[in-house]
Amino acid sequence: RDLVRSRGLGDVYKRQGINAEYGAKAMSNYDPDHDVKLLVAAIKRIAEPLPDGTYKTTFIKIFKDEILEQQLESLVGTMKAARNKGFIDFKGQMLLQGAHDNVEVTLLKS
After folding, report:
1. Residue 69: alpha-carbon gap to chain centroid
2. Would you state the pLDDT for residue 6?
3. Which of 73, 84, 91, 95 is within CB 3.0–4.6 Å of 59 for a Cys-Cys bond?
């Protein structure tokens, strides 16, 4: 809250109808591990299982999954976290809708 005041964002948020305190509380409760678990479950649900125990799908299938869309705040951020933890792999730094729709995403472990 003090950061909002010091940068003068409180007035901006008020004009836009945004409750700055709510946003700060919501972010303090954010659990990236929980989101990674949701992503892993979604990939297992929508991907093709392979004989080696991994699952493979395309980014667009993950992006357009209606259930996951309702569960995650940031798909790109969650995918980066899952990749850093060794759960998934894909080519490139990050995936964006349109440009990377057909990039394969592999679930390595669950």
Report:
1. 9
2. 46
3. 95
